[in-house]
From TrEMBL, chain A:
Residues 505-527, 535-548 have a biased composition (Acidic residues). Its main location: cytoplasm. The keyword Cell inner membrane does not apply. SUPFAM superfamilies: ARM repeat, Nucleotide-diphospho-sugar transferases, Trimeric LpxA-like enzymes. Residues 561-739 form the W2 domain. Gene3D superfamilies: 1.25.40.180, Hexapeptide repeat proteins (2.160.10.10), Spore Coat Polysaccharide Biosynthesis Protein SpsA, Chain A (3.90.550.10). Component of the translation initiation factor 2B (eIF2B) complex which is a heterodecamer of two sets of five different subunits: alpha, beta, gamma, delta and epsilon. Subunits alpha, beta and delta comprise a regulatory subcomplex and subunits epsilon and gamma comprise a catalytic subcomplex. Within the complex, the hexameric regulatory complex resides at the center, with the two heterodimeric catalytic subcomplexes bound on opposite sides. InterPro entries: ARM-type_fold, eIF-2B_epsilon_N, eIF2B_epsilon, LbH_EIF2B3/5, NTP_transferase_dom, Nucleotide-diphossugar_trans, Trimer_LpxA-like_sf, W2_domain. This is Translation initiation factor eIF2B subunit epsilon. PROSITE patterns: W2 (PS51363). GO terms for cellular component: cytosol; eukaryotic translation initiation factor 2B complex.
UniProtKB/TrEMBL annotation, chain B:
It comes from the Eukaryota. Gene3D superfamilies: Hexapeptide repeat proteins (2.160.10.10), Spore Coat Polysaccharide Biosynthesis Protein SpsA, Chain A (3.90.550.10). This is Translation initiation factor eIF2B subunit gamma. It is found in: Cytoplasm, Cytosol. Acts as a component of the translation initiation factor 2B (eIF2B) complex, which catalyzes the exchange of GDP for GTP on the eukaryotic initiation factor 2 (eIF2) complex gamma subunit. Its guanine nucleotide exchange factor activity is repressed when bound to eIF2 complex phosphorylated on the alpha subunit, thereby limiting the amount of methionyl-initiator methionine tRNA available to the ribosome and consequently global translation is repressed. Component of the translation initiation factor 2B (eIF2B) complex which is a heterodecamer of two sets of five different subunits: alpha, beta, gamma, delta and epsilon. Subunits alpha, beta and delta comprise a regulatory subcomplex and subunits epsilon and gamma comprise a catalytic subcomplex. Within the complex, the hexameric regulatory complex resides at the center, with the two heterodimeric catalytic subcomplexes bound on opposite sides. It comes from Elysia chlorotica (Eastern emerald elysia). Its main location: cytoplasm. One of its GO terms (molecular function) is translation initiation factor activity. Keywords: Cytoplasm, Initiation factor, Protein biosynthesis.
Amino acid sequence: MAPKAKKQPNENLKQEHVLQAVIIADTFNVRFGPVTLKKPRALLPLVNVPLIDYTLEALAASQVQEVFVFCCHLGEQIREHIRNSKWQDGRSSSMTITTLLSDSCISVGDALREIDAKSLIRSDFLLITGNLVANVNLSQVVEEHKQRTQGKDKSSVMTLMFKTAQPGHRARCREDEMFLLEEGLSKRLLYFQKSQDQRKFPIPKDIMLDHEDVIVHNNLMDCHVCVCSPVVPTLFTDNFDYQTVHSFVKGILINEEIMGNKIHMSIIQDKYAARVSNLQTYDAISKDVICRWTKPLVPDMFASGHQKRIKNGRHNVYCSEGVTLLRGSTLGNNVVVGGGTFIGSGTVISQSVIGQNCQIGENVRIHNSYLFDNVVIESNCEVDMSLLCSGVRVLERVRIGKGCVLAWETVVGPDVKLADGTQLMSEPQVDEFDDLDMSFEGDDKPQSDAANSRKVEESMDTASYGAKCQAYLYKPAVESDSDEEEEIEEEESWWLYAADLRDDQLDESDDSSEEGEDDEDDDEEGAEGAGEFALDSDDDDEDGEDNVDSSLGFNPKACLLKVDADFYKELVATLARADSEKIKEENVILEINSLKHAFTVPINEVIHSLPCAFIDLARKLAESSGSTVPSVLAAFKSVASRYSPVMCNYMKDSESQLTAIAGLGDFVIKNEAYRPRLPQLVNILYDADVLSEGSIMSWYNQAPSNTNPSRAKCHAFLKKLVEPFVSWLQTAESESSEEDDGDEEDGN
Amino acid sequence: MSNPGNITAVIMAAGMGSRMTDLNTECPKALLPVGRYPMIWYPIRTLEKSGFSEIIIITRQSWQDQLASTLNSGKMSIHAKLEFLAIPDQEDIGTADSLRHIADRVKTNALVVSCDLITDSDLLDLMSVHRKNNSCLTVMLSQLPNSLTADTVVPGFKAKQKSNSGEKISIGFEYNNLEHIVYWKAQVDMEDEFVTFSKKFLNRFPCARIQSNWTDCHVYLIRDFVIKYLKDKSDISSVQGELVPLAVKKQMSVFLPILPQEESSMASPGGDMKVDKKKDLIDYAGETSNHLSHIIQSLSLTSPSFGTNEDAPRKNLIGCFAYRQTEGFCVRANTIAAYAEASKQMPRLTSNFLPTKQKAGPNVPEGTVIKPKSQVGADSMLGENVTIGEKVSIKKSVLGKNCSVGDGVKITNSVIMDGVSISQNCIISNCIVSQSAKIETGCQLSNCIIGDNQTIATMSIHNNDVLSNLAHMMSVPLE
């Protein structure tokens, strides 16, 4: 246990005055990909200062006296860091920090239950995450909460702190988008909903009827700062369903009438508070620190102690002492360079953070990137919009594309170009998240991951990452835990949101897809049998690797989800039978479910196969008219409208809808004649209310997978196909929503 | 025209008064007495005070003469030129229909006022809000006076006393500019379990304050293009119920200019996919704003779209705003409760409506015969030629002309219209007594409505009753 747990003798007398804070130094997710495999997120340097120091500084500035830092993943490192920090020498601060280690916790809820078990909390306390950057005085929020609980609203158990940020604000984490309702005068939180990928937000009408003054907020970001009454850990203990603060909030709101507990909110407007929750916010908040929004937490005023003095120049250029800048090197706007770094001549750096003791060669261009300490970049390299961890070596003439992440000690080069969005690490990936349930993974085929990656990568390493490389591809683990409160891990590529990009990502697939469009026409499909749409899944990924389809520009086999052929055949047969015997929809669902169990296929494979199977069914129905493409489409339209309840049953949320769209994509890749018809296919499902506009758009905007170049091309190719439909959606969007409502109005 | 801002003022006086059928059996709703003047006199005076000198009054054919003769009689001290436009009697039409009826007559922006608006606030404030925000539809909202929101006992049958919660409207205001209306939905229209907001709405108006404690005063300042739109769109029949929500919603639409080669109304996005699209409100708005006004909008420092992208002016063509009236008295006398409340306020407020030079007569006119030991409270008002017997006490009440009150009568909290005679020792509290009613000796009435020409027999006791000619009353809804 932690070294410091001494209780003060006169504790009872001072009880009310001690302000406590609990820092959860783990976020229980893997949004940082390979970066956090070796170092906990709380210790990642943000503008050359470990993140947790920002958090601790914010607490110290808010007169917090006692801090509990709760660490799980790589907690030893955090404890070590705090032990060596200025906070522990007792002279520079009166704040006591206690580090709590736990390996068994997998959520904030667990952490609070453990805190409850240790009964560390004596009064209202602050609950924050270890990645908060803020210059707001948190004690004011605590004071607000205290006044509320001692005054008229004794039942308030929590005050959540939010920061205003208009939609699209760069520091808003897209995975944490939310929508909430506040009662105007009392500041009580009435309703809370995560809003990612949703286009409609239904709220219970009683809220509107019961409250005269309701504020609808879509302009807030959650700072994950909550002031909790001492009862909160107990509530967590009482209810094991509470995993995250969000689930707790929801639970409290739902049970409000029974339990009588209330949650309030506090909105900060003029101060800064934001949370480094993914790479995109890491980028945004770094820029904010450099641009001094977080003053006094800016590089020249705030360093974690052992660093040298930092000079602040014009255009937000910060140089530590001991930086060597050779003649002809240029530092553009918003650059931070750590001490001991050497920058060669002809090198241009802009909008970037360079750590300490980095070696940067000649004629290197670094833009919008983050280099941790001890990074070596040899001459004539280009780094754009990337994150390079400590000890990374980039050999000569390497171009690192946008959105790359090179984890600790990775070596790449020489003479290679890294594709956009590549995530590399220096050791082969080992599945160290044994607590994450990986068995249900869809597209990534994880079972063979660890084994395969070593074998496959070793052979392709040098080709992609240079002759002297020491680099293995990182494949993000997709959490498929169906718990709705679990943070949905979406492959969000942070760099897509940065200002100046998006132009050249599709270049390679452009010409090929045009070809695809040319050879449309309804020639050859009559000949094909019904089972043909099912794909032969027995080929191996590996041997198909070089087998590039000329009309597509990539190898189709490499990017299709393998579907159990027997299952698929049976599924089509079931549907056909259901159709001929007019079986009810509910029973069709039951039959499909039993098929799923009989063949032990994962649910996403079922979803993936369903659209295809229905097209197959349509094809059978259209046999009389010769199974031409138009007749199949017409039949599919009627099938889709008839069976939309069945499909909707499987495609309720956006994730499953994405899978279904991917299924359609695979279908058209296999069946060339249908390629130009993909928009119609999507449209049919859209009209049948199976696919929502939101999921089509999010599929369309999905970042190409960086793990599999072939799949990325495939996605780009499909995107190109669907483009007309999507652009129609986008133009129609401005009209449609109101048009619907307008019609309603007219009907009255 | 000499109206301020070249605005056409329109008073809607064609309503049947469907929420107060117990009262307006005989005379049109617009002529029900409120204090010493008929109801419609108040909005006319409010308009006059704001500088309007030409006022259009929409009424029903059969009421037109009655209205004209009443209002043009010299006693009313009305100086504005009143123009009556009649709509056929048989049509049961909504406010928007009435407007459409006279749309040809209205070439400019229009200020539409309901005949039951009784307010002493200045309409110029509403017009300022309109002009400041370049609004296309400005609505006057007010919070009900406390005396109405509290659980006051309303005269009449208890069963009829539904709370007015059914008429509550959830109105959303932009958080940073509370004058800007971004959401409008009557609570009765919330049929589903859920109220739905779209992502688009939330992105456009990230922070909206939705309040349901405002009443729509039925004062609308409407831009000319909206009236044109209304003229072409015949399925909108009510301003509050349909036009306002529609305009609020259409704020989200973006104007797509008509391509020059396609002269027809093909302003639709998606080209050939929706050729038959009808002209929408935004198209009317777009037609009125030309290229120059776009430039003005985009360069204006005060415009809400300053600093945003160039497209913004196209987006902000439609704006709905509210004048949130908070000071002064404002009530729509369209329910019995509101009518009673407005009447009782008149002893205090009448002078606010009169021209500044003209002094309001005293609440108890000179020459009123009041026998000794009687009290008429300062919060009461009597008409001309009222005779009051001995030991009478009148509190918080309004009596019309030619009433006679016998000895020992107590009247509290009541509205007594013209020519009512009340015999000795009656006790009347919280009642509305219509014209020429006779209340005989010793009656005790509380919370009652007495119809025209009714005679209440000696010593009767009534509570929460409507005493009127039933057959006559029944005929009203059938008309």
